[in-house]
Amino acid sequence: MLAGVYQQLVAHAYTSAFKAAPSTSSSTPLGAGAAQASSTQAPVQQQQQQQLHAGGARGGLLSTAEIMVIQTGSSMLAGATSSLITNPLDLIKTRIQVAHRHEGQPATFRSVITEIVAEDGPFGLFRGVLPRMVNAALWGTCMVTVYEFLRRASRKEPDQE
């Protein structure tokens, strides 16, 4: 199912790119060459479009609701993944910023890591990752959803999707 949705999303992007492509003029030699090249590629492009549109349950493009669901899920996954990956570095950075060394030496990256691993084990580097993942997932979802809504609302011809 996910492969079919991806195929439909690619088909939508593919057809949108050709709708927005500028036409070339054959009044100049460069324009004539471009027009000739585009006329020889047209049957191949039509065949590719038909193959891409043939996939999926309905055999057509995705609806706006389906696209919004995909974008929402993708933004949540991206936010959660980025938080999971960057949490150890953020934890170390915060510990370095608030560290008070009695010996007069500033905290180093290595000393903070060894301290965290000694106290809590390797999973100590992921302390606080769940709230950070939820925060990033929700923030990313709101940002992408609002951006896509505004992008669609600001189109000059909204009925061409």
UniProtKB/TrEMBL annotation:
Principal location: membrane
Disordered as annotated region, ranges: 25-55
Residue spans of the Solcar repeats: 66-153
UniProt entry tagged with the keyword Oxidoreductase: no
PROSITE patterns membership: SOLCAR
Membrane topology summary: Multi-pass membrane protein
Bias (Low complexity): 31-55
Keyword match Acetylation: no
Compartment annotation: Membrane
Keyword tags: Membrane, Transmembrane, Transport
Similarity section: Belongs to the mitochondrial carrier (TC 2.A.29) family.
Protein name: Mitochondrial carrier protein-domain-containing protein
